[in-house]
Amino acid sequence: MFPDHDFYDPRTNMWRSLANMPLPVHGVYGSAFANDLIWISGGGDKVGGSFGTTHNQIYRPEVSCE
Question: What is the pTM of this model?
Answer without folding.
Answer: 0.62
